[in-house]
From TrEMBL:
<dbReference type="InterPro" id="IPR002933">
    <property type="entry name" value="Peptidase_M20"/>
</dbReference>
<dbReference type="InterPro" id="IPR012166">
    <property type="entry name" value="Uncharacterised_RocB"/>
</dbReference>
<dbReference type="Pfam" id="PF01546">
    <property type="entry name" value="Peptidase_M20"/>
</dbReference>
<keyword id="KW-0378">Hydrolase</keyword>
<protein>
    <submittedName>
        <fullName>M20/M25/M40 family metallo-hydrolase</fullName>
    </submittedName>
</protein>
<dbReference type="GO" id="GO:0016787">
    <property type="term" value="F:hydrolase activity"/>
</dbReference>
Length: 499
């Protein structure tokens, strides 16, 4: 059986195990890997060199499959892919075919599903397989598996190969964050020197004749906003301040804001997008909401979180001033038409980082506050671990609880960072960056000679990936800043950042 046949055989077996992200189905990857481990004579002779690594404090009890192939020396290549897929709701009434490439191809050929011109061309060529995960993580993972199989048959080769499959890439990267510990343990136990990590993901081509590889991965932060207004009946609206109005103003000034577009090398980030916006009422009533919350996604290449959040804070202050000005104009018009008077408005813009508010309360309330809020955080984390509470809802509960201790009851915008944080990474940050560039140059020459296709290097993968946790080069100032404003830092085991 040649390499292509082995890749396809492994892929068809892998697809049979449904591994929808964020569900217990992710554990099905173990069914596939147990059989695959058993099929490799080298691993049968060395059972201690493969296994499943527990993801710590994971409510879904997911594990990371891994296998180590030892050659000569300590230099080690890590071959990484993720084992989870998104669900198949987009397949509609044809969900049963999502993991059956042959049947799905027949369905397409019969014309039962409308296809665009490019997909129809690929279908008619007979050179493509279709299905969830086929041209993504499972297809890429099976390339790694097949290469591992080949090298396992060699009596000698230089270096070592470590194969890892991580769950949860499509969600919160719990697999990769735990894989950092696995990599450390294997390094210490077997004396490994990690020199290269290869992550398989789909790629976009600018030129059909050039394969795209990425030598970095975009960063992502998720600023989370909690706006506290002033409660009032809707019939006396000028007595209050609507947090929905204020948060809306912040959204309008930041959504798609080109100030946050970054360019580094040949990569450009898209602008920010808001992913959630809601008042914090549990039931309907005729009063203004007291609280409103929202969070956004900001992608970055070189800008540290502090620079991004400082700009968001300044924009929020501008929005606050504009809302107050608009309210005053509206109130002036209202008073010109009625004898009703609710007094003068004396709102002042007030925007704080979560870390600032926490420290103000700590200074006023002392260790009792620190103890009580830590206990509350722990309760929230236990609920999150059990799947009873989402991490985002937990973040809002934590911010709201903290505000209960705050003596200043005036309207305020609170800004924090919600987990997870994805640092930007690039090989240029490493001492070995030049060596990697030379390797890519040699691969390009080899690819052109063997296949007629060259290699185009994109400086960053903008789809957000587990590679954010493959290195971390931030300085202490930025680590401290993240720590001060990242919710749940130090309570839940999320990050192990070493500059």
């Amino acid at each position: 059986m040649n390499r292509a046949d082995r890749i396809e055989k492994n892929l068809l077996n892998y697809l049979k195990e449904i591994t929808h992200t964020g569900t217990e189905l992710e554990r099905n990857n173990e069914n596939f890997f147990k059989k695959w481990f058993d099929s490799i004579p080298y691993l049968n002779r060395n059972p201690e060199l493969c296994g499943f690594y527990d993801i710590e404090k994971d409510c879904l009890k997911r594990r990371i499959p891994w296998a180590l192939l030892k050659g000569q020396g300590n230099r080690t290549i890590v071959m990484l892919h993720h084992t989870d897929t998104v669900d198949i709701d987009d397949f509609g009434k044809y969900k049963e075919y999502a993991y059956k490439p042959s049947e799905l191809e027949e369905l397409f050929l019969e014309g039962k599903v409308e296809l665009d011109e490019a997909t129809r061309k690929d279908l008619n060529s007979g050179e493509w397989l279709f299905g969830r995960g086929v041209s993504d993580m499972k297809g890429g993972g099976c390339i790694h598996l097949s290469l591992f199989e080949e090298y396992s048959l060699r009596e000698e080769f230089s270096g070592n190969i470590l194969l890892i499959g991580v769950p949860d890439e499509e969600n919160l990267s719990a697999g990769m964050r735990s894989a950092v510990n696995l990599l450390r343990d294997l390094k210490e136990k077997h004396g490994l020197e990690y020199v290269l990590l290869l992550n398989v993901e789909p790629h976009d081509r600018i030129d059909e004749n050039n394969i795209t590889i990425y030598d970095g991965s975009v960063g992502k932060i998720m600023p989370i906003f909690l706006v506290r207004g002033k409660l009032a009946h809707v019939g006396q609206i000028y007595k209050g301040l609507n947090p929905v109005n204020l948060l809306s103003a912040i959204v309008r000034k930041t959504e798609l804001n080109p100030e946050f577009i970054e360019k580094a090398g040949n990569t450009v980030t898209p602008p920010p997008a808001w992913l959630y916006f809601k008042d914090r009422k549990d039931v309907y009533d005729v009063s203004l909401p007291l609280l409103a919350g929202g969070y956004m996604s900001v992608l970055s290449l070189n800008k540290p979180p502090k620079e991004i959040l400082d700009r968001l804070k300044a924009i929020s202050e501008e929005a606050f001033k504009e809302v107050i000005s608009d309210m005053e104009l509206s109130y002036e018009k209202y008073r010109s038409l009625t004898d009703m008077d609710y007094g003068e408005m004396d709102w002042k813009p007030n925007v704080k980082y979560y870390g600032e508010i926490y420290n103000e309360i700590l200074e006023e309330k002392g260790e009792l506050f620190k103890k009580e809020i830590a206990e509350f955080q722990k309760e929230l984390e236990e609920k999150i671990d059990k799947g009873e509470l989402t991490r985002i809802d937990g973040a809002y509960h934590l911010m709201e609880k903290t505000l209960e201790y705050y003596s200043d009851l005036s309207p305020v915008v609170v800004i924090a960072l919600a987990p997870p944080y994805y640092p930007s990474t690039n090989n240029a940050m490493l001492d070995s960056g030049r060596e990697i560039n030379e390797l890519i140059f040699e691969l390009d020459k080899y690819a052109r000679k063997q296949t007629g296709n060259g290699i185009y290097t994109q400086n960053y993968f903008t789809g957000i990936s587990d590679l954010s946790y493959a290195m971390f080069t931030a300085n202490k100032e930025n680590i401290d800043y993240i720590q001060d404003n990242m919710l749940f830092w130090g309570i839940c085991i999320i990050y192990h950042l070493i500059p």
